[in-house]
Amino acid sequence: MRRLPTFLFGALLLCVAWMPASAQFAAAQDSTLAGIHTVVLSFSTNEGAFPPDVAAEMERTVSLELRKSGVKVVTGQGASADAVLNVGVLRDQRSLSSDLWIRIDVEQRVQLARTGKSYQLVTWYYEAKKNAMVSTDPPKMLQAGLDTFLEKWMDMNGR
After folding, report:
1. Is the whole model's pTM more than 0.90, yes or no?
2. Helix, strand, coil percent content, the chain, rounded in steps of 5
3. Where is pLDDT greater, at 38 or 51?
């Protein structure tokens, strides 16, 4: 009978440890999109994951969707922008199937209140993963991630 409280406490700790850390999805991350009007777009896929024309089409789609929504997209080294928008579409080919990861994040210059130092940090991100993907998944998942980013961006910028 004395072991029951210890067991219950252990079970509670296990449940808490098992739950995902939700701080990374804090509502405050959306507020960091306010005031962003121009982005440097950095699109990447892992080498050989997609045919070159498919990867190029995904990058064009991202750029077009951003511009249609009012985000100015600039490219090139030294381009001046409010933030860097990193879009990664990664495919892991296994023996019998492929897995797909989509990651979209926003990097911007922030100042640490405690020290006053400036850093280039990720302030917002979106991730999605699909096991055993099919050929139609990459465009759909990429569009879902873009829709999430643009919805949050529009909310924070009064559109």
Report:
1. no
2. 40, 30, 30
3. 38
| E-assigned strand segments in 4-97 | 38-45, 72-74, 83-93
Q: Which of 32, 24, 26, 48 is nearest to 103 (CA)?
A: 24
Which residues does residue 74 pair with via DSSP β-bridges, in sequence order?
40
Compute the distance between CA of residue 55 and CA of residue 60 in angstroms, rounded to an integer: 9
β-pair type (38-45, 72-74): parallel
Token output for 143: 């569009």
Query: What confidence category does residue 28 fall into, taking pLDDT thresholds of 50, 70 and 90?
Result: confident
pLDDT of residue 159 exceeding 80, the answer is no
Pure H helices in 19-69: 28-31, 52-68
CA–CA separation, 106 vs 33, rounded Å? 8
Q: What is the pLDDT of residues 67-96, one digit of tens each?
A: 999 999 998 777 789 999 999 998 887 777
Residue at token pair 């099919």: 134
Handedness of CA 121, 78, 47, 132 (dihedral sign): positive
Residues 156 and 32: their CA atoms lie apart, in Å, by 8
Higher model confidence: residue 120 or residue 158?
Answer: 120
96 vs 105: CA distance, rounded Å: 30
